[in-house]
């Protein structure tokens, strides 16, 4: 019997970022969305994350609820409060988290050298909450940790002798939280975990993600396709053997998006709001977008990129094939920053084709909304993509995604081909292969489809009508939690 009653259980979510408090990637969106997605199923989730500078001021009535007098080189405490409807627990430890820079990198873009200790402290605090509970009597029935920053939670729970199920979600296996072996004692890890076959050892280093994978009750990831890809050497990043040996298969649960914050019908960032039945108003956003990027409107599609400019995102493949796309009347708007050499390539393209290619560095949330609402197509040629949210936002706003056949991109975009076009179900374009030639073929198809206004409008409407909210995903997580908690008490 699945728990779905009003008192189904308590979940502690352990994450390094969470919308709307702090965000550097899609993990924050997921961590911020899960509490409300689970509430209809009776699960009460509290989110534990570090108290980076300024975060405590964003909470309503932050209250100290737990002292941590010996926390990896200093003292700390846990503050409880709310941010909107989300119940938040902030780990306040100035010696670890009060510093310039971002959550993981210093102002020069380098990893903080004490990152292993910083996020071990987060995991330790999670264990203390599970062991001692909170003053209001709240104690989690299950811990849900995210990525390597939460990877040591299962280890600390095991060392403390706590019989509580744990879930570890892989949002991107490329980031594994490796630390020097000599820090094992400082990280309060049992030496028995650090042997050639042990859960915390990875090629002579301490592997936080490996420890989480090996010791969690259940491992999940953010799309069904990525769950199967992770057993392959080209995607597993050295951990494919660990994953293949897990006692339970990885559960691939597709991410959702916040359909209230991301709604072309009500979005205040747009020049004009619209729906699938009033899609003609979308053209006003297209005109405004071209003006913002200094582009003239050609006869072809206006394509956009909203992304980090990295090889993982496949964005080194785009510059060589853009001239042919522009020759067919296409236009390109790019919002992002990343690898220095790629930024330079896109800047050179914008300088060479000033009325056809526009580049704005960095990230601007309102502008991202405007791009999804105004672009004809969104380019996401990633070499790997665990889930991806940009293609979901694009679908939600009627920007046709052009994606690689990998991870969540493959799970969420219905490729335009004769069968899907005939059935009027196509929602996007899928590269035939992930290289510059494959991207060139996809851009040619984009131009051909765009040249048929009626068919193009059908593809846009299909995306606008698709449901990628958190309803199904929230139900899947709730069912998984119920199963794990019931196994514990059985």
List the helices and strands and how they pair.
Blueprint: E1 9-14, H1 26-38, E2 43-50, E3 60-68, E4 76-83, E5 86-92, H2 94-97, H3 115-132, E6 142-146, H4 153-159, E7 166-170, E8 178-179, E9 201-202, E10 205-207, H5 208-215, E11 218-221, H6 224-229, H7 233-236, H8 240-244, E12 251-252, H9 282-292, E13 302-306, H10 318-327, E14 331-335, H11 340-352, E15 357-360, H12 365-374, E16 377-380, H13 390-397, E17 400-403, H14 407-412, H15 418-422, E18 429-430, H16 436-450, H17 453-465, H18 471-489
Parallel strand pairs: 1-2, 1-6, 2-5, 6-7, 7-11, 11-12, 13-14, 13-16, 14-15, 16-17, 17-18
Antiparallel strand pairs: 3-4, 4-5, 8-10, 9-10
Helix pairs in contact: 9-12, 10-16, 12-13, 13-17
Summarize the structure.
The chain is an alpha/beta fold and 490 residues long.
Helix content: 25-40%
> Gap between N and C termini, in Å?
12 Å
* CATH architecture term of the largest domain: 3-Layer(aba) Sandwich
If strands are numbered along the chain, what order do they take across the biggest sheet? 3-4-5-2-1-6-7-11-12
- Mean pLDDT over the residues: 96
Main β sheet profile:
9 strands, mixed
CATH 4th-level superfamily of the largest domain: Glycogen Phosphorylase B
């Amino acid at each position: 019997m699945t728990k779905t009653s009003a008192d189904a259980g308590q979940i502690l979510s352990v994450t390094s970022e969470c919308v709307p408090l702090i965000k550097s990637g899609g993990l924050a969106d997921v961590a911020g969305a899960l509490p409300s997605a689970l509430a209809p199923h009776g699960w009460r989730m509290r989110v534990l994350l570090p108290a980076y500078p300024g975060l405590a001021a964003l909470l309503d009535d932050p209250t100290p609820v737990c002292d941590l007098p010996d926390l990896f080189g200093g003292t700390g405490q846990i503050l409880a409060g709310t941010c909107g409807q989300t119940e938040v627990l902030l780990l306040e430890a100035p010696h670890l988290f009060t510093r310039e820079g971002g959550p993981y990198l210093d102002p020069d873009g380098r990893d903080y050298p004490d990152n292993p200790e910083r996020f071990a402290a987060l995991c330790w605090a999670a264990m203390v909450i599970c062991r001692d509970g909170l003053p209001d009597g709240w104690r989690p029935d299950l811990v849900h940790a995210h990525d390597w920053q939460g990877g040591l939670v299962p280890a600390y729970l095991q060392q403390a002798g706590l019989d509580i199920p744990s879930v570890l979600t892989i949002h991107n296996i490329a980031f594994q939280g490796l630390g020097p072996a000599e820090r094992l004692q400082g990280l309060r890890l049992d030496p028995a975990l650090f042997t050639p076959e042990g859960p915390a050892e990875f090629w002579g280093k301490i592997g936080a993600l490996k420890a989480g994978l090996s010791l969690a009750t259940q491992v999940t990831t953010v799309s069904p396709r990525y769950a199967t890809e992770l057993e392959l050497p080209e995607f597993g990043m050295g951990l494919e053997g660990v994953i293949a040996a897990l006692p339970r298969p990885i559960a691939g649960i597709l991410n959702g998006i916040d359909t209230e914050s991301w709604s072309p019908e009500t979005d205040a960032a747009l020049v004009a709001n619209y729906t699938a039945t009033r899609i003609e108003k979308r053209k006003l956003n297209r005109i405004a977008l071209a003006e913002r990027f200094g582009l003239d409107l050609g006869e072809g599609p206006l394509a956009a990129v909203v992304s980090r400019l990295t090889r993982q995102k496949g964005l080194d493949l785009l510059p060589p094939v853009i001239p042919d796309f522009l020759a067919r009347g296409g236009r390109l708007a790019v919002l992002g920053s990343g690898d220095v050499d790629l930024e330079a390539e896109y800047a050179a393209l914008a300088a060479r084709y000033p009325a056809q290619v526009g580049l704005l560095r960095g990230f601007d949330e309102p502008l991202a909304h405007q791009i999804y609402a105004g672009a004809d197509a969104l380019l996401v040629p990633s070499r790997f993509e665990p889930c991806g949210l940009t293609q979901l936002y694009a679908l939600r706003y009627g920007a046709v995604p052009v994606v690689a056949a990998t991870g969540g991109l493959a799970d969420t975009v219905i490729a335009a081909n004769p069968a899907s076009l005939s059935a009027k179900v196509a929602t996007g374009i899928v590269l035939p292969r992930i290289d510059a030639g494959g991207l060139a073929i996809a851009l040619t198809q984009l131009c051909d489809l765009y040249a048929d206004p009626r068919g193009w409008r059908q593809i846009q409407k299909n995306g606008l009508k698709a449901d990628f909210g958190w309803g199904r995903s929230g139900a899947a997580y709730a069912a998984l939690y119920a199963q794990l908690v019931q196994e514990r008490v059985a």
